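WARN no homologs supplied; continuing
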Amino acid sequence: MTKHYDYMITGAGCAGLSLLMRLLQEPELNNKSILVIDERPKTENDRTWCFWEKQPGLFESIVCHSWQQVNFRSPAFTAKLDLQPYTYKMIRGIDFYNHVIQYAQQFLNVEFRYEKVLALQTANTKAVAQLANEQITADYIFNSIVFEKPVIKKGEFYLLQHFKGWVIETEEPAFDASVATFMDFSVNQKHGTTFMYVMPVLPNKALVEYTLFTGQLLQPDDYEDALKQYIAQNLGISNYTIQHTEFGVIPMTNHVFAQQQGNIVYMGVAGGQAKGSSGYAFQFIQKRTAAIVASLLHNNHPFTRQTCSDKKFHLYDSVLLHVLHQKKINGDKIFADIFKTNKPSTVLKFLDNESSIWEDLKIMNSVDTKIFLRAAFAELFK
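OK structure emitted
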């Protein structure tokens, strides 16, 4: 007999576990039967999320470090930026996984299962997950598994944000733990838009991350060579140990991802929550999962609609991707112009898709208007 649940969450990463946490925070929903399926348990610190927010969020208790000042560096503009009223925060993946899973263990109605999900479908008003040897059904499936790369249509762009990071520890103090390096474009730009993050958590410990926006991945040695060179030449550090390594790839695309199909709801990268022009995902996942829970509470279903604001920012993302893809202007110059002529808080608000039209216009006036207007017309009338 096929087992049935109220809700099924396929994929126990950031999106799946964020939704689970939000469901369990609601008395009207936390008694629902919930199955969480992932291919394997989350036992490693496989990634780090950095994001900004004004107030303490749902996961404030596991923020491992935060900064209110960041450095921005490029050949065209360098400054220390005060982010108020925002705070830049870091969460380690393993802390996030443990936090949500431990919280969920007090609910007898929540079940975890570790097996590969082969396919999803809706049949007879039920959402169905196909496993190797059985089918499981639910009223709704909330999916964050990317089963395959989306089919990119004519006029759509598909770049990659790829990065390798090292958590390094030095023998002597080498960092100011109160200031992070948000973007350092002083590194070689031969591959495309390329920058470094430096996130110090102690005077002798920091995450140093090499990040690129390009169409193709590099060879493994290229990332390590860039990190070694930056640590030695830019940070002036010769003696250090590597405590942790992480690598990731996030799509940067203006492809329109389905938000739902039948009784299947998409989240995370699978739902297009990685911002097309920057790859930022953590806070967009929080907004998406909060909206799903709000709809369940108020509408008795999890479906949400695209707003005019969503369409506006999708156009902005498309325009920037157009410019980067056509290589009309270097990415380091774009970000330098934006940060040079706008308040940091306005830029962060814009990157969060929360800015007003007047703030948008200020951002747009910061960059080469001829190049961006041509790209905007091309995107509007393609």
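The first strand starts at residue 4 and ends at 10.
OK
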